Amino acid sequence: MTVWSVEACSKGLALTGSRDTTARLWSLEQMYPLRIFVGHKQDVTCARFHPKITYIGTGSYDKAVRLWSITDGASVRVFSDHVSPVLSIAFSPCGKYLASGGKS
User: Fold this and answer.
1) What is the pTM of this model?
2) For labeling, which of 1, 23, 58, 78 is most exposed (least CB within 10 Å)?
3) pLDDT of amino acid 31
4) What start and end residues bound the annotated signal peptide (predicted)?
């Protein structure tokens, strides 16, 4: 599996975005995926934790940014305003905003 993005948090979790079109939430202690987030149509290029670790954000070559619930893995919101692949995302420190960047 080709992994494009990795982020760890203070709760012993890691988040990956990969070529197989998924994001995965990992337990760092047991090294297995706790949840697999499915919904993007192309590579997940970036994945980030929300500051409160209640959500994750993902960006993809499918030109979409998604907000996901960590609790149940549901896709909470899809932003599809990009005209080219999404290469980077970041939450604001307060968690109120999610910024994204790409080739456009």
Assistant:
1) 0.95
2) 1
3) 84
4) none
* Digit-coded pLDDT (tens) for 26-83: 999 988 899 999 999 999 999 999 999 999 999 999 999 999 999 999 999 999 989 9
Question: CA–CA separation, 89 vs 104, rounded Å?
Answer: 14
Q: Note whether 57 and 30 are within 8 A (CB).
A: no
Q: Give residue limits of the domains in the chain.
A: 3-102
CA 10 to chain centre: 17
Nearest C-alpha neighbor of 97 from the set 89, 5, 34 = 89
How far is 38 from 40, CA to CA, in rounded Å?
A: 6
> Is the CATH code 1.10.10 the one for domain 3-102?
no
